[in-house]
Fold:
Amino acid sequence: MSDTNLSPLLALRIIQALGGPGTPPEEGLQHFSVGLDPYLNVLDDEYLDRYIQYGGASFKMVVGIYGGGKTHFLYSLRDRARAKHYAVSYVSLKSSGESPFYALDLVYKAIAAGLLPPDDGTDQHIDRGIRSFLRAWYGKRLQTYQTQEMSLDRARECLADDIRQIDLPNLNYRTAVRKALESYHNNRQEAFDQVCQWLQGEGFDRRALQHYGINQKLDRSTAFPMIRAMVRMVRELGYSGLVVLLDEAERIPSLSTRNREQLLSNLREMIDECGQSSFEGMFIVYAVPDQNFLEGRTQVYEALKQRLSTVFTEINPTGVKVMLEQTVGDHTMFLHTLGTKLAQIYEVAYQCSFDAQELNEMVIMVADWAEDQRFGDEGYKRLFVQTMVAGLHYLNHHGICPTLTEITRKP
Structure:
């Protein structure tokens, strides 16, 4: 019954993540994903394989309550995008943290810090951020030349030519990318770090940066041009495009009136930017827990409502809103399948084997209980996986199906 393609360590990480906070781990999603493939396949075919790769840009808004699978959906899309030669960046937006959506300069900084190159098919770990992104591009490019039976010196000459030919409309960004790669190429680590610090939005040392020909400071007025420049950089380096996954970690109405108005204005501008040629190769997916932030009577609310009115479905891929609850048809079947997958992962993690009858009894019991919670404030999917893992622990230790009282959380 256990999954032979799953390592015990990864299985343990999955169980720890799902049984604790109930949030999906960054790896191993394919071992317990249920019901997302129809929507993900459409995004694959319509956007990743076609429109974005051809130079288009698009914006989607994913709607799902807390614990309803937003992050899982974004991670799954991230993995598919990386497999199709896209650079990606996942950003958790928090008004009290480092990346509130009402402050686009901080959002740029978070996108830059989360930047990952495409998956190269190896298990090699790659750190996030523009520094690692540029180093990974350089290493991959050098490796490509060397596989063409070039000498190391000749390969380095070709790489130097590639760097000189990088062309971006944003003069400061073009200068920075070239200088960073030239510095890395020539083993000038201090210069590489200084320029990458600017690219990552981590500060502005005017005297040091002017030495390299960089004169623009990242602030709210320059954030959009910097985001556009990052997209162009990704395409210029030979990748299919940039997929940015923005995960709104709290309800927008909790913001102050001023910050909410700025957030809505930024959101409208970002949607409009996706209709411009300057954003070519950009796919933005913005996940929110509800749509209450659209309830207002001012012009900015009405403008956003119009832009976000259409619903994405398998037969209408151009729709903007992805309603996660609609990805599940039969909720009972969904939970039963998910419970079985979690049991398989648990068996690998703890090198055990469950009695089929006792396990089936527990899956049905927990699924029925979780479905009764479906219309609460917290997502029934998260409640299910947390309770299911608690039940698996009980079943592993006692060999019999627990009662709900023994495994459900106390208020």
